[in-house]
Design a protein that fits this description.
Largest sheet: 5 strands, antiparallel
Helix content: under 10%
Strand content: 35-45%
Number of strands: 11
Radius of gyration: 15 Å
Shape: globular
């Protein structure tokens, strides 16, 4: 089941889901738009790692699916990866690839990626991996 904006708000109020900083204008009917921490220019046919401004704490019964916002996908920007496991805490490192023939400029605080929240049936394990409590951009470990 996909969480609605109301369910996301309810979980934020109870603390079972954390998005800091939270911006109401980033909350969509069935997703949340993540912003980038630092501005960057991504050259044509190049990949860059960027950090989300937001720090998230996923509950044990939900996971996040990341997707490029459609306005950026239309410009040729693709997101590599895309799962935020139950129990993950930290900033998200976003792997962005510019497939267009022109440079793409992204400004600090720009909404680039959307996160959808899905419930996990009968959760047992939560994320405790090497990217737990990530801050800023984290390369492959």
């Amino acid at each position: 089941m996909l969480l609605s904006a109301k369910e996301v708000r309810d979980r934020l109020k109870t603390g079972s889901l954390v998005i800091e900083p939270f911006r109401e204008q980033s909350l969509q009917p069935a997703s949340y738009d993540l912003t980038i921490k630092d501005g960057i220019c991504i050259p044509s046919k190049a990949m860059r790692l960027v950090s989300s401004l937001e720090r998230v704490e996923m509950p044990p019964d939900a996971l996040g699916i990341l997707r490029t916002r459609s306005s950026y996908a239309r410009k040729g920007l693709l997101l590599g990866g895309g799962i935020v496991d139950p129990g993950f805490r930290g900033n998200l490192t976003l792997c962005l690839t510019n497939m267009s023939d022109e440079e793409i400029r992204l400004d600090h605080g720009e909404r680039v990626v959307q996160m959808l929240f899905l419930l996990v049936k009968s959760p047992v394990e939560t994320y405790e991996g090497k990217y737990q409590d990530s801050e800023g951009v984290v390369g492959s470990r």
